[in-house]
Amino acid sequence: MDSASDIPGSPVAWNGVFLTVPKDWTPATIEPRYISFTRNATATLECKWSPETGTISLPRKRKALERQMKRAEGFTFAPQAIPPHWLRALERLSADFEILPFAHALGTGALCLHRPTNTSLLLNCYIRPDEPQHDLHAVLASLGVSAPGTPVPFAIQDMQFTVPAGYVLQKAEFNPGNTCLRFARERCTLTVQRLTPANVVLQGRPFRAWIQETQDVPLSHIRKDKTTLPQGAHKRYLWRTTPRPSLLQRLTSFRNGLKSARAMQGTAWVADEENKLLLVTHESATTSHCDEQAFRTLWQSVRVF
């Protein structure tokens, strides 16, 4: 997220794309490879992206988009129809993008190809020409794409963290008081969960008892660890389980194609000033060990605000 670091605003990083938006821009719709923003309940910008396999052809992408948008009122790639304010805004995009602007009845847009990562992006902007454009210029200047095979930053709602390379977003849930994101690589799963308000979640129960109940972990496996504390935490709990199924269970699982018991490690803490409970777990279908480095990289990067 280096390109966004010097721009005032709120960082947003979501599944490979990162940018910085004004503090009054709110993520409205969040899907695996789509995000839209509103300001005062009015649409401002939306972005849809897709990693491509093989060589991207801009003319082919243009024809496909024309077929897709043929019923959209006023849709056109005609240069004379593109508003000057939109062309000036697009000039702020990184030189890594190849850009094909368009217009439609509701606003403007651009088909963008990010050559270094072989990613196609579709931008739609709903900011009117008579509105101030400096925010939009700053947002487009901050837009970037994470390189394949590198750790992927996530900054969404009130959380920031970095997912180790190779882990792919599998599931995302945004519910009131509960955000849960799950990532997978081969037979391993990493999960980040934020629960709030923490005091309501715990309901006066000891933290270890809550972990025991919700994670189905024996109390004897849960220990306090103060060697490394996340930001805003005064204590952190850590646990690890390595199930050892009996020979009969292993034979039955093999014969029936059932999943074997999973090894799990987890950690949980409360960001006291924010009154938010954070939970990070790593599960592996291989009962011998978990990916300790990936687990540590993830939980140590978590920040809430």
Automatic annotation (TrEMBL):
Superkingdom as given in the UniProt entry: Bacteria
Full protein name: Uncharacterized protein
